[in-house]
């Protein structure tokens, strides 16, 4: 069973709840071709940092748009691969376990490669505050003088532990916990979606049951539920 936080994870800027200032700044940057090559997303757990870090490369690399767009189509092969974690151009690292200088050296060796499908190669480092000082220092040169196709997004729950020399070279966004009305809106959307799914499941079971019963009838008979059983549900 898919965890709820994954099932309802925002897939585009228009799905994000409670981070209007961050969304507005990023979408304006994309629209005016002013995207930075190093971002630092800071804030408590569950505020959408990783989700936003995945939406950004969709906006930059979407195959359904002629160029970077704040409105990626979310359904092209590039957006789908990013959502599924299988994109070759979006690399996610957990700095809690990949925190040493050897891990950063591996990044430095890879960044010279051009993107495979998209326009940008994006590295997302989660729990970035857990990188060692040596690892940060190894990253500094890349952050200062990145190749044109390279973009970093560092996510952290402890901004104070990110070394000042890195913070000064990144555009920093502080994510806030959603307000109560925003959470209510999100919960209503989630509960409505879940109710629709449950309703579908029950309808399909009833249809399947009716079809099974009718299959034992003589060929000349017309099952009363045939219309219902053959009707395809409309997707929302």
State the secondary-structure class.
Answer: alpha/beta
CATH architecture descriptor of the largest domain: 3-Layer(aba) Sandwich
End-to-end separation in angstroms reads 21 Å
Number of separate helices:
9
Mean pLDDT: 80
Which range best describes the helical content: under 10%, 10-25%, 25-40%, 40-55%, 55-70% or over 70%?
A: 40-55%
Domain module tally: 2
- Poorly predicted residue ranges: 194-236
State the major sheet.
Answer: 5 strands, parallel
**Given the C-alpha coordinates, what overall shape results?**
globular
Q: Strand arrangement, largest sheet?
A: 2-3-4-1-5
Name the CATH homologous superfamily of the largest domain. Answer: P-loop containing nucleotide triphosphate hydrolases
Explain how this protein is built:
- The protein is of the alpha/beta class and 236 residues long.
- Helices cover 44% and strands 11% of the residues.
- The chain has 2 domains: 4-178, P-loop containing nucleotide triphosphate hydrolases (Rossmann fold, 3-Layer(aba) Sandwich); 182-230.
- Strands 2-3-4-1-5 form a 5-stranded parallel sheet, covered by helices on one side.
- Helix 6 (133-144) links the parallel strand 3 and strand 4.
- Helix 3 packs antiparallel against helix 4 and helix 5 packs parallel to helix 6.
- The radius of gyration is 23 Å and the shape is globular.
